[in-house]
Amino acid sequence: MHLRVINPTTTTSWVPDTLAMFEDAASDGTTVTVATIAAGTPSIESRRDEALVTPWVLRAAQAAEAEGCDAIAVDCMLDPGVHAAREVVGIPVLGPCEASMHLAATLGHRFSVISVAEHHRDLMIDQARRYGVEPRLASVRSLQIPVLELEDDPDATFRTMVARAREAVQHDHAQAIVLGCTGLAGQAAQVQSALEAEGIGVPVIDPSAAATRMLETIVAMGLAGSRVTYPRRSGATSAWPEPRH
Amino acid sequence: MPSSRHPVVRITIIDPVVLDGQVLIDPSPEIPGAVIERRSLAFGTASVESRWDDAFAAPGIIDAAIRAEAAGADAVVVNCMEDPAVDAAREVVRIPVVGPAEAGMHLALGVADRFSILTTEAADIPIVREMVERHRLEHRCVSIRAVGLPVLGIGADENDTLRRLTAAAHAAVEDGAAALVLGCTLFASLTDRLAVELPGIPVIDPLSAALHHALTLVRLGVLHSAVGYPAPDAKPISWPAGDVRFGPAAAEGGALAAGGAHSEGSVR
């Protein structure tokens, strides 16, 4: 299967890490490619950013289907464009937030999301509501580090992730942790080990890996988005700026 | 294509019934990257379709999960849509324990916003509803429809079973279902034929969903929360058969052999 990961930002420096993270969870026989959107914002940290990148995610989704891809993952915890894309493309489209929240719900009664900025709390609560798992969401705890600064001091970012996860378990009664930014992906196992070493046995979920495996499952089982939930649309636009090459 | 990047995952399906000459009518689904073993119960009932059956299946499921872990399984799947003893088994093993209902419903929500469950008999509907509510998904489950067949009647006439499933599926779509979760793992062999009748509506075979989910958990290196499913403390358990395992491996010191190291009537 050919999995197309859409990088829904204009920041191309993340692409090698993104590719490695999705490939890490992918099965033998799954080929992963990453496509960066043609225009938009360098990160997605607000509803404004989400609104600006979404049309370009949809264009990238159409391109992925035209190129013969079997499934699409949009690499951002706001899952921008995922549901709109399902109206127009026929191949499965999934976001890491949807995949990781459903996965978390199978591992404990309540889960918490470790997000990046404080104002992401409401965005993550909205996501849990949209996916039907809000009753299982214990809390959203934030690192309070801007997305574009996550890699400036990786050790500090890691320590803060562990601290927020610990607080979620001890104060919010979380039983599972979802890393709430795909910029944090690839560190789930280390955060889980650090907590385990403190005697806190909770699963820590890497959203990119969760999306990879849920898409493989959907493809292997011959499923795709429901045409009741996502009726087929033409995908026409009457005026839209073409990207400059 | 690279050579295998992941070790083969060993998944044990626990058929939560006493076979006693019964032949399993459902083949194990093929899951690339996984090898599948099956275990049935030494004590329990012939099928699981009531709270009563659940109650009598649960001790054997706990025992089978502990044995599967001791035998080197990477994950277990309890092959019944009532997810019997899944929570209890999670307290005593540290490998993923997956229930088809839980896995099937969450997979359905990955491809649709609303689902219905097609169960066996009308009497089963309240039990399925309780299960849905326990997972807090009642607002996403638009209906539970019964096909009007007992579990042990599903394999008797495949064409009749398919006709009944198709009728129930159309009724569920009328109810507003955007996806269908088959409500008995024995419906699995009819999944593809049913899906043909319902273009655009995902039809989910819960056993396949559970096996894929088990593979996902092992691949990601996660399993049920130790905080949410703490291991019970060791204590004496009175049980009239000697060769059973009910305690977590740590509590038993890993010493209880399959042959029954404890005398009859006293196991931990």
Summarize the structure in words.
The complex is a heterodimer of chains A (about 240) and B (about 270). With about 240 residues, chain A is an alpha/beta fold. Helices cover about 40% and strands about 15% of the residues of chain A. Chain A has helices at about 15-25, 45-65, 80-90, 95-105, 120-130, 155-170, 190-195, 205-220; strands at about 1-5, 30-35, 70-75, 95, 110-115, 135-140, 175-180, 205. In chain A, the strands form 2 sheets. A 4-stranded parallel sheet of chain A has the order 2-1-3-4, with helices on both faces. Chain A has a 4-stranded parallel sheet with strand order 6-5-7-8, with helices on both faces. In chain A, helix 2 runs parallel beside helix 3. In chain B, strand 7 (about 180), helix 6 and strand 8 form a beta-alpha-beta unit. In chain B, helix 1 (about 50-70) packs parallel to helix 2 (about 85-90) and helix 3 crosses helix 7. Chain B has helices at about 50-70, 85-90, 100-110, 125-135, 160-175, 190-195, 205-220; strands at about 10-15, 35-40, 75-80, 95-100, 115-120, 140-145, 180, 205. Chain B is built from 7 helices and 8 strands. Chain B folds into 2 domains: about 10-100 and about 210-230, Rossmann fold; about 100-205, Rossmann fold (3-Layer(aba) Sandwich), CATH 3.40.50. The interface between A and B is large, with 52 and 56 residues.
